[in-house]
Amino acid sequence: MYVRKDRPKDIFPKRLSGLMESYEIEKGRRGISNIGLARLLYQKRNGADDASLADDRYAVERENGRKAIARKISRFRKGDQFPQWDDLVDLADIFGKPVGFLIGETDCDTYELQDIADFLGLSGEAVLSIERMTRKVSAEWLPEQSGGNGGDHEEWEKYLVNDMVAKANAEPEACRAVLNRMLTAAAFKDLVLCLSEVGDAQYNLLMERIASAEIELRDADG
Fold first, then answer.
1. The whole model's pTM is what?
2. What is the average per-residue pLDDT within 32-46?
3. Helix and strand tally (H, E) in the chain?
């Protein structure tokens, strides 16, 4: 379960700036400025630009509107102003992130991750940690990546890549097997409840002992 450590007004400026810095303008180019984001917000609220209006009074009105939004975005990033709900919804839509992520109510930066975390009752970080342990690689790209020369050469390439994929998946498969056994064990809930009563200092000491035992087992196997 995710627990927010800072206030929304302290989290929002950092997450907004981070999203702006990583925003993909076009392939190979990242980072959007205050005025660039203001253009997107203005367009979202007022529709696409009409080129025929470029030289009339609407062009001035449009430019002034964008500049006003850009100034507001600047205040958002500095923490001088907290956004209204409409601003949060529009920003979340532009960046494709849950509103809760922008204000620190969740650490899930996608709706899919949020759904999984809500279903399991875990934090997004915990879900991603499990996913990293159990993620399997695929060789679906093999036919396109092979030499294409046909015959034995192509078959040998397929064999080598499939062998590499199998070896790469050995660890995730082992993790999946252990996690399934552990999570379905009758005593697992009791273990979790016991650990929930352990303080931070005792928990860190336990993790250190587990890490030490892991090293000893690896040395013994070697």
1. 0.62
2. 93
3. 11, 2
